[in-house]
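Changelog note: in this version the structure field was regenerated for every chain. One regenerated record is shown below for reference.
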Amino acid sequence: MNAPLTIGGAPVMVLEARDAPAEGPALLAAEVLPGRGMMLLQARLRLPSGEVVDAIHAPAPAVAAQALSGGPDDFNGDKSFSFGGAILVPYANRITGARVAGAREIATTVAGQPVRLPANWGGGPARDEYAMHGLILDKAFEHEQPSPDRLTGRLSAGDFGCGWPGSAEIEVVWRLAGGGLSVQVSVANRGPGHLPLGVGWHPYFALPSGRREQARLHLAAAARVEVDNYQQVLPTGRVLPTGGSDYDFSAKDGAALGDRYLDDCFTELARRDGLLEARILDPAAGVGLRIVSPSSAVRAVQVYAPPDQAFVVVEPQFNLADPYGREWPRDVATGMVDLEPGGRTIYEARIIPFAIPMA
């Protein structure tokens, strides 16, 4: 018997559904990487036709293992958010600061405390480097699989090795249930001081038809964060209304993506029965995905959808981009949660497939 493939020093863990419906759209299996921050590598989706396809844009595990090997382009675990579904802690999105001479770091202030974060994104001519997508992208979690459809992982992150305020203890639970897939991220503060916290998830949802132009997005968001450009994607500090604009996806069946480029942070999110919901519809494949979060601390959804790719990234997250940036007016709440000593918060997101009429 071949040894299981390892990535990040830990085996690729396979989840198998035990109670999926006998027919119709359902997520039947998933692959998770405890050695890479408990990220999702792949999930297998049964279409209304009965065909089983990849639900997530990602390479095969052996190819992913090469990409996630810690090479020069994998600094701070950057490759973890280039496919699959990375978990983002203690901040989602970007944090800016001053470049530290002689180090690949930025110096900035988080909740009044100086920290040095990895300068792992941005750069190039006339572009600043900044910190991107948290500090657990390449961290190995202790893990166990109590049942075929459930996987848990734990990490005592402390100050994340950078002086981040507080002392974080993280637990991640992945579960396949009822034809859907859920992730729960629980963060506790074990330190004597307060822990500022942003949590997010960065899943690349594949379009089974491969026809991106006809795919539709539904997201009931009254506003989006204006950015400087689509190269750095840094907020200007202005929050603009979406109603009646090219960024209005609030209709029941959403709006077609067409040839538009999206890398935008949406906020002022509508909820129904306490749930935030986004939907990706692929009429050519007759299937849709609901992305649901019951977490009240989720204040933003980042959507990344380049027109030349057959995927849509939908990222429910606590915080807006650059939450401590000087561009933000004082009266704008940027979404970071303040955990008191002994406090705990929970982030949760679920993926639920459903059938739609084929077009």
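Spot check on this record: The two ends are 45 Å apart (CA to CA). Residues 61-67 form the longest helix (7 residues).
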